[in-house]
Amino acid sequence: MQFMSEVTRLHYPVDDTTLDNGLRVITNPDPLAPGVAVNLWYRVGSADEAPGATGFAHLFEHLMFAGSANVASGEHLATIQAVGGSANATTSFDRTNYFETVGPQALELALWLEADRMGSLDVGEQNLRTQRDVVKEEKRQRYDNVPYGDQLELLLQLNFPGGHPYAHPAIGSMADLDAATLDDVQAFYRTWYQPGAAVLTLSGALSVDQGHELAGRYFGDLPGAGVPANKPAPALPPHAGTPEVVVSRDVPRPMVHLCWRTPPLTHPDRLAVEVLLSLISDGQSSRLHRQLIRENELAEALGADDFGLARGSSFGVISVRAREGVDLAQITDTVVETLDDIITDGPRPEELARAKAGFEREWLAALAPIDERANQLSYYATLFDDPQRINHELAEIEQLEVPDIARAAARWFNPEARATLRYEIDGGN
User: Fold this and answer.
1) Res 7 pLDDT > 80
2) What is the end-to-end Cα distance of the chain in Å, rounded?
3) DSSP secondary structure string for all residues of 74-120
4) 198-204 and 244-249: which strand pairing?
5) Contact 264, 315 (CB under 8 A)
6) Which residue in 107, 132, 351, 408 is a FRET match for 63, CA 20 to 30 A apart?
7) 421 and 352 in one domain?
8) Is residue 267 part of a domain?
9) Residue 233 resides in a domain
10) Would residue 55 be called left, alpha or beta, if left means φ above 0 and alpha means ψ between -120 and 50 degrees?
11) Measured distance CA(157)–CA(393) in Å, rounded
12) Hey, is 381 helix, strand or coil?
């Protein structure tokens, strides 16, 4: 059965310009959209933090809502909500993202708010203390007091050596945050929160000319300064042997994470890696779902993903939560056998076609809302220096063939070069 008869070609209009102060402005006019998405990516994430100063990037995700020259603490979000809009922020390894979606009549308000905190954030002692406490509470709720809450930290430590930019999660160290001085935090803001380190994307009910004019009006007078290069990260070799970490926790079921070092975002093999992980794990017809859940009833849940890191190396992980009484070794053996088969024979053509069809469906659904489209445009502009990838990435996926997936599997998912994180219940299965 053929799931995709031809390459799906997208034609989103994308204008790309840069203000004199270094702010990159991406405009995606969509006259049928009910509003406008404002998306601002700063080219700084947890990978850019200095040793002993982890958690700064995520801390600023909170500080940016704590007030600026003309906006009181907490009023940024309240002001956007008062005009029927929404706003939020996220932090990751390679970027920090702030975003609003508003009606066309509130676009200038959203831009003014973003420009005000870019140029005059209130980074004072009181705000630092308050937001530091907020981050601590977030860590307690999301990491310390939930099952498997330390899995990200353990996976990063397993896949990256100590001191590597990716060796710690974005939440950072609470001890580092406690030790942070006001001067430290202000220096981080001055370094990274400036036009030359940012991409502003506007998607929705506006024209290209409006995008240029409004970006210049609200951001053009902010001073530009030299922006440091992002901290480099070396390309790491495959895992030597099969290192394993076993932890005992109060968790509902035993769980295993099988990890491989994979190529960074801009590597030619990236899409083949993503398709490989999708075709073996996504949907009830995938090999692992069929073998582990439907037929042999070894697992109650599984997933596979690549972390999509931009510098040097990323890593991919296959995660499986076992059924009660199942030995994790059985699950590991099944995953290894599946990868060996893919390396030797490649995926079946129908498996590859199904994975491509899934990517197309998810891609088109994701890009329909202007907020997600704006986010993707910022992503491609910031990490690929190519916002036009939004129009041709799906075509590149469609061009992948069975030998491409087999080669990617052999290069990046050698079962004898994996690392394993095992969760066991109170010391045993």
Assistant:
1) no
2) 42
3) THHHHHHHHTT-EEEEEE-SS-EEEEEEE-GGGHHHHHHHHHHHHHH
4) unpaired
5) no
6) 107
7) yes
8) yes
9) no
10) left
11) 31
12) helix
Same domain, 198 and 317: no
Amino acid making up residue 317: V
Range of the domain at 56: 15-219
Block residue for tokens 């010391």:
427
pLDDT in tens, 303-351: 999 999 999 999 999 999 999 999 999 999 999 999 999 999 999 999 9
- pLDDT tens, residue by residue, 365-389: 999 999 999 999 999 999 999 999 9
Neighbouring CB atoms inside 10 A of 70's CB total 11
| The pair of three-digit structure tokens given for residue 309, joined into one six-digit string | 């890191």
Angle at 116 between CA 56 and CA 192, to 5 degrees: 30
Number of domains the chain is built from: 2
Same domain? For 268 and 119 the reply is no
Report in angstroms the alpha-carbon separations of 230 from 165, 190, 191, 216: 10, 15, 11, 26
Residue 60's closest CA among 80, 38, 79, 45? 45
- State whether the Cα torsion 278-280-281-282 is positive or negative: positive
Tell me the C-alpha distance between 194 and 175, whole Å.
Answer: 27
Domain identity same for 183 and 267: no
Amino acid at 287: R
Smallest CA-to-CA distance from 419 within 257, 235, 234 is with 257
Q: Are residues 33 and 176 in the same domain?
A: yes
Does 286 share its domain with 199?
A: no
Whether 208 and 258 map to the same domain: the answer is: no
Structure tokens at 199: 């991409």
Burial profile 399-427: b = 16 or more Cβ within 10 angstroms, e = fewer: ebeeebbbebbebbbebebbbbbbbbbee
Query: What is the chain's alpha carbon radius of gyration, rounded to the nearest angstrom?
Result: 23
